[in-house]
Amino acid sequence: MRTDGPFRRVAAECAVLAGGGTAILLQLADPRVAAGIARHSDFAAAPMRRLWGTLDYVAAEALGGPVERAHVERLVNARHRAVRGTTASGLRYDANDGDAQRWVAMTLCWSAVRAHRRVFGRAATSGAAADAVVRGFGRLASALGTDPAGWPTTAAAFDARWRTALARLEVGDDARRARDELFAARRAAPWLRAAMPLATRLAVSLLPPEVAAAYGLERGRARRFADALLWAPIVVGMRLAPRPLRTLPARLVLARVRRAARRD
After folding, report:
1. DSSP state of 97
2. Dist CA 174 CA 115 (whole Å)
3. Could you tell me where the beta strands, DSSP code E, fall in the chain?
4. Number of domains in the chain
């Protein structure tokens, strides 16, 4: 597994997994993404499948080789092919729309960096390293055919684009239903269902306040204090754990993708 460079070093850390649920909630806050998921996926029956699929895609693109990348790109492109239409309110959506794909990649980038900084501070994701991380996550979108020129090349440009994108978000009924299914995890394995209350708290704690409010999720002072107490042992444990242990989940995900690619 390749972990050279700022982007791969960040993507390989298990701390960024805490941002996986955050990224999905942000994606759903875009009505185009929420409409596509609500009308063309089995999210209600298997909400964890999107999370696992996202983990596979990020691991393969960030840490894998050409075989793994080609495998996940074929899978994603095949799923996206039929995801297009118009809602009853006249909203047009298309999973292959470049702007929507860039938004999904932006949520993955922002959530991963936010989770990484929550655990390790800003040193590893500031300055030139932050620019490299942004460019690395841009490949998640361009690998699916979006124009690389539409992706910011610096952290400052990303932040400006992010603020503009946040102002356009709208959490609707599709997003709230998908959120409820994700948090309930009724079809997940027992161990994962037991872990969902913790995973949910971590995901919500990383959300921008305005997005949390749009979902009707409490982010007041008492909740922020409780979240800080929740994060404290995680931060200590992650900082004390050796890097091979912290990157074990990423290596296991990549190994699963590699096995699936061999069968493909």
Report:
1. -
2. 26
3. 84-86, 92-94
4. 1
- Residue with token string 């980038």: 109
User: What CA–CA distance (Å, rounded) separates 139 from 141?
Assistant: 5
Q: Which domain holds residue 50?
A: 5-263
Q: CB of 62 within 8 A of CB of 7?
A: yes
List pLDDT tens digits, range 20-73: 989 999 999 999 888 888 776 666 555 567 778 889 999 999 999 999 999 999
pLDDT at 124: 82
Contacts of 141 (CB under 8 A, 6+ apart): 98, 101, 102, 104, 105, 151
| 264 vs 12: which has the higher pLDDT | 12
Locate 151 and state its tokens.
Answer: 């992706």
Token pair in block for residue 40: 């063309």
Task: Tell me which residue of 134, 105, 130, 106 sits closest to 117, measured CA to CA.
Answer: 130
**Of 23, 169, 173, which Cα lies nearest the Cα of 89?**
173
Question: For residue range 120-173, what is the model confidence (pLDDT) as tens digits?
Answer: 999 889 999 999 999 999 999 999 888 999 999 999 999 999 999 999 999 998
Q: Which residue, chain included where needed, has tokens 């794909």?
A: 101
Are the C-beta atoms of residues 36 and 95 closer than 8 Å to each other?
yes
Terminal-to-terminal C-alpha distance of the chain: 20
